[in-house]
Design a protein that fits this description.
Blueprint: E1 3-5, E2 18-21, E3 24-27, H1 31-105, E4 133-134, H2 141-151, H3 154-174, H4 183-199, E5 209-210, H5 213-222, H6 234-249, H7 269-283, H8 287-292, E6 294-302, E7 308-315, E8 318-321, E9 329-331, H9 332-339, E10 343-345, E11 351-353, E12 358-360, E13 362-370, E14 374-380, E15 391-393, E16 397-399, E17 413-423, E18 431-438, E19 443-448, E20 451-455, H10 457-461, E21 465-472
């Protein structure tokens, strides 16, 4: 049987038995050709079968891998549930320790509700704004200015006047292992009590003044830096006082963090933050921490693997440096804008990445996650204070919502309440003066050692603020 083809392309079908007659190619397949074609068809069929088998094998492998993944996820889910139950039990044990401390404090009736850690109810307290000067007892304007800032924080003064006397015995025993053993808080209590008494005495055409001699003696006893007959830095003093007062007034001073609480994974934000707040609050609670301490959130991003690590730390005040802004207008808002910019960690400051297992370049971002009730800002003018900035605009009202790492239900705003101003060149030398605003009449008062009196806003705004104290609205 022959097949006639006018196309030479079909010659490929039977290449072994081609005969040419004129321009027409006639294919005459013999038995050998048929066998050859059968073999080719069989090979093609086998190839198709192999492809189908391979496809089925791949599908089975994919299904098997999916089953392994599901099994792995299920195991991780079960393990996470076990870890959750374990953490819940650990937190329960931790809360038991906190409740035990609360029960111990119940007799003193000083803390209405420790769980409301940053909630202060002062509706039943009298507003405290003493118009009393502090006598300079030998290069102590830095100390007098710092004390005036603290004295005019009404919540703190009311605590020392009404709560501290009832808790003094308990706190004295609780802080027996601290370096100062409660002596500095007691000395400050005497200052507040004396100033409060003098503020009730009326003097025509003048104001009373008080000499904090005993407080200066106790202060110098425990910190020789402040015992010298020379001026010191009010920033250093307010930091020392806040930290020492917190140690002495800490209701949980004798408590320790339970050792069975596992460290959190630093790449998990919620776990890291909960661990920090739980462990901190279980061993720290004082009127100082309640009023002044805020919390920073640090996020570090590895430049190699892009892993983000979270850590947290408490702060007493914020320092803004102005010496990089010579002859440029500066403001507190500008300081916050600079503070949230990325810091490069490289060279000697490289970060140890747990995932990369080596030191790496990284970026550090620092933002406030828990703003304090009383926000203290220190202005660092550097060595050349006179030429540091052309114009320093410090806001009387401050909105820091955009600079926080956590979105609150409402904007976080502050009002300026006190200013510690430094007169003179940079450094501890010079004169320190305090300005405080009376919330009841919205009038500013100037406290310059033993003298005090009303001033206008012009003098406030043209000063050189060194410490600014804002209170949350």
């Amino acid at each position: 049987m022959g097949v006639l083809s006018l196309s030479p392309n079909n010659e490929e079908s039977f290449p072994e038995c081609n005969y040419y007659k004129g321009e027409v190619t006639i294919h005459i397949p013999d038995e050998k050709c048929w066998e050859s074609q059968k073999e080719k068809s069989k090979d093609l069929e086998n190839k198709n079968i192999n492809k189908e088998n391979q496809k089925n094998n791949n599908s089975n492998q994919i299904l098997e891998n999916e089953l392994k993944i599901d099994e792995k996820l299920e195991k991780e889910k079960i393990q996470n549930e076990k870890n959750f139950i374990k953490r819940e039990q650990e937190n329960k044990n931790l809360n038991i320790n906190i409740n035990e401390s609360k029960n111990e404090l119940g007799k003193s009736n000083s803390i209405n509700d420790i769980n409301n850690y940053n909630d202060i109810n002062v509706s039943d307290q009298k507003y405290f704004f003493p118009l009393v000067g502090l006598i300079n007892i030998g290069s102590t304007s830095f100390m007098n200015a710092t004390l005036q800032c603290l004295l005019h924080i009404s919540e703190l003064s009311n605590y020392f006047l009404y709560e501290y006397p009832k808790d003094k015995g308990f706190l004295k025993s609780n802080c027996k292992n601290t370096p100062t053993k409660g002596d500095l808080s007691n000395a400050y209590y005497e200052v507040v009590k004396s100033v409060e008494k003098l503020s009730k005495k009326e003097i025509k055409f003048s104001y009373n003044s008080y000499a904090p001699t005993e407080f200066k003696k106790i202060l110098g006893k425990y910190n020789p830096q402040f015992s010298k007959p020379e001026s010191n830095d009010s920033k250093d003093l307010i930091l020392y006082l806040l930290q020492t007062f917190h140690e002495e007034l800490n209701y949980f001073g004798d408590k320790v963090i339970p050792k069975n609480i596992p460290l959190p994974d630093p790449t998990l934000r919620t776990n890291s933050f909960n661990y920090f707040t739980t462990t901190y609050q279980s061993t720290n609670f004082s009127k100082i921490s309640q009023l002044f301490f805020g919390t920073y959130e640090n996020t570090i991003k590895c430049s190699k693997c892009n892993t983000i690590y979270y850590s947290y730390q408490k702060f007493e005040f914020i320092t803004f440096s102005t010496y990089n802004y010579k002859n440029i207008d500066y403001s507190i808002t500008k300081g916050f804008e600079d503070s949230i910019k990325a810091q490069k960690l490289k060279g000697e400051n490289q970060y140890m990445c747990n995932k990369c297992k080596k030191l790496v370049d990284a970026e550090l971002f620092t933002k406030i996650i828990e703003p304090p009730i009383k926000l203290i800002i220190n202005i660092d003018y550097g060595k050349d204070k006179i030429n540091s900035v052309q114009n320093f605009n410090f806001e009387h009202e401050l909105d820091i919502t955009g600079f926080l790492s956590f979105k609150f239900d409402k904007n976080v705003k502050y009002k300026l309440s006190s200013i510690c101003s430094h007169k003179g060149v940079s450094g501890p030398s010079g004169l320190y003066v305090t300005y405080c605003k009376n919330k009841e009449n919205n009038i500013w008062y100037k406290f310059n050692n033993s003298s005090c009196g009303q001033i206008d806003n012009y003098e406030i705004n043209r000063g050189d603020p060194y410490l600014l104290i804002y209170e949350k609205i």
